[in-house]
Specification:
- It is built from 6 helices and 5 strands.
- By secondary structure, it is an alpha/beta fold.
- The protein has one domain: 3-Layer(aba) Sandwich (Oxidized Rhodanese, domain 1), CATH 3.40.250.
- Strands 1-5-4-2-3 form a 5-stranded parallel β-sheet.
- The longest helix is centred in the last third of the chain and has 12 residues.
- The chain is globular and about 30 Å long.
- The mean pLDDT is about 95.
Length: about 130
């Protein structure tokens, strides 16, 4: 069940979502199944990532992604798909990456919660 978020948080998420591209879990799963090349980034907390995450995802938590993204994904044209628990933190992170010059950033709406509900595969533990 999705947590209840406070109104001011939802306001900044809604604002970010006016500027970022979004996709859904089915589209990301299809991209993975087709072997498309993109960087999948889990922006949740480290403890959440360690519990489980999408296969092939790298971890760059929302608190450090702006600091560390350039070392992990130096090409500003690379396709980057961000996800979190439900699609809110990933939208905020996508907005900031776009401000940094990343031109092909997408936030996965529904996040890992929708991914789990669909029964799609997950990886356990840190990578």
């Amino acid at each position: 069940m999705a947590p209840q978020h406070p109104p001011r948080f939802l306001k900044i998420v809604d604002d970010a979502k006016t500027r970022v591209r979004e996709t859904n879990v089915e589209a990301v799963k299809k991209k993975m199944d087709r072997g498309e090349k993109f960087t999948l980034v889990d922006v949740r907390e480290e403890s959440e990532f360690a519990k489980d995450h999408l296969p092939s995802a790298i971890h760059l938590g929302k608190g450090i992604i702006e600091r560390d993204i350039e070392a992990r994904v130096p090409d500003l044209k690379s396709e980057i798909v961000l996800y979190c628990g439900g699609g809110f933190r990933s939208a905020l992170a996508a907005d900031n990456l776009q401000k940094m010059g990343y031109a092909n950033v997408i936030s996965m709406d529904g996040g890992i919660r929708d991914w789990r509900e669909k029964g799609f595969p997950l990886t356990k533990g840190s990578t």
